[in-house]
Amino acid sequence: MAAMHSSKLSNHFSRHRSGSYLSMRSASNSNLALSPTSSPPSRPTWPLPSSPSAACVTNTRFEGTDALPTNRKVALQRVLEAHQALEAKANQATTPTSTSSDQRPTSSSSSLSPHHNENDSDSVFAHNLNSIPLENVELRAFRYFQRMWDPRNPAWRDDAFDAAIAPWRTAFEETALKHFFNRVAMWDDSLDVRESMNRSIFHRPRRSRAKSDLSSISATTGAERDGDDALKKATTREGLAQLLWTLLQDPKGPLGGLQREVMVALKEWFCLKNLTTGQSIVGAHIAAERSDRIVAAILIGPVYPNTGLIPVFQKRIETVERDGMQPLADSIPDAAVGKKASPLAKGMIRELLLSQDPAGYVSNCRVIINASPPQYSKISVPILILAGAEDKSAPLEGCKKMFEEMESTEKRLEIMEGVGHWHCLEAFDEVAKLIEGFYHEIQ
């Protein structure tokens, strides 16, 4: 199912715990790299003690963890999601509540700073760094977060900066972190794109505020928006994201208020009162258990869990564990599609299968083997099922059975002739028309 479900929501902070320690990439810590069979390091305590690996020169580029590059990618995705969620939450707080089914729920304005006005239309990321009378403020703010991670490291000591923010340290930490969320999100944008976004989104006309308002941090300024970007010389996009996310999600850290704000925003961002579409079992479970969160659902080739699936998927598990994804990539593009499938569609299916992580594919197969049928009788929202007449992975009989068990008074089963299990690749035009028609029907 394409919709975010509760397990993902609960793991926004926990998924990044494994190996979420930070280090500098230098010769002094090259011995930290783990082999593929090594266990990730344990979660760091707060504050972290000083260590030889942390005592690095100031011009070393910060890249996050040396041992587990995937953790940097996870952290980057989390920061981007938080950026979207915080902005959406702030924007909705200044817009009238909408009753349209395709709108996210509005919420009350969160406390962004001691001077925040809930009626202010400014973006949550529209801040002003120039209020701090120091040079290279953005880079010094980044170094501040590095000191927060490792307060005993003398490499980034900056007494002048610490003194400048001392009267409003808590507000600085929260607003600076949001500024860096925005920085990560706009990391690869060209100068023209950034300036356009700043004019249209991040720098709307501001209401008058006292000149002494130091509770805000600005978007990048002239010298930092061109090729001579001091922050990019000090860190990478993923390294910055991992530093921010590690600090934010640490329960012993000083950012508890912002952590709660981000979690609320993420829950509202992913738990939508909306039309939801997706494939397989999870979509039906969400429609059955969380119908209060959606107004309609579309199930594309959903599997009806039953014991007859066990030998099929057990065989796949054995094949992948023995030979990897290659055998499935050689057979499924022909065996799991219908007669409408084009050579291009089959080629795309093959590439998708070869790109799968074997361990992840095996895990998904085990989930299907052990899955229990959703309580289809609890599904009361309008629902559309798209079933391939030649689907062998989610046979038509199972789709008909779940359709009959659903209590919804607005339900429809569309049987797509000549289509197997890869509906969106085999007959994308037909899928699009059916979804569009269903959407207009339920308005």
List the keywords.
about 450 residues, mainly alpha, Rossmann fold, four-stranded parallel beta sheet, 18 helices, elongated
Count of folded domains = 2
Biggest β-sheet strands, sense, barrel? 4 strands, parallel
Q: How many extended strands?
A: 4
Q: Structural class given helices, strands, pairing? A: mainly alpha
Helix content: 40-55%
Poorly predicted ranges: 1-58, 97-122, 197-227
General description of the model:
By secondary structure, this protein is mainly alpha-helical. The chain folds into two domains: 6-270, no CATH class; 274-442, Alpha/Beta hydrolase fold, catalytic domain (Rossmann fold). 46% of the residues lie in helices and 6% in strands. It has 18 helices and four strands. It has helices at 6-10, 69-93, 137-149, 159-165, 169-185, 191-202, 222-225, 230-234, 237-249, 256-270, 280-289, 310-323, 326-335, 343-354, 358-370, 396-405, 423-426, 428-442, and strands spanning 274-279, 294-300, 383-388, 411-416. The protein has a four-stranded parallel β-sheet with strand order 1-2-3-4, sandwiched between helices. Helix 16 links the parallel strand 3 and strand 4 (411-416). Helix 2 crosses helix 5, helix 2 crosses helix 9 and helix 5 (169-185) runs antiparallel to helix 9. It is elongated and about 70 Å long. The protein starts with 5 loop residues before the first helix and ends with a helix. 35% of the residues are buried. The model is unreliable at 1-58, 97-122 and 197-227 (pLDDT under 50). Residues 286-422 form the Serine aminopeptidase S33 domain. Residues 94-114 have a biased composition (Low complexity). Residues 38-50 have a biased composition (Pro residues). InterPro entries: AB_hydrolase_fold (IPR029058), Hydrolase_4 (IPR022742).
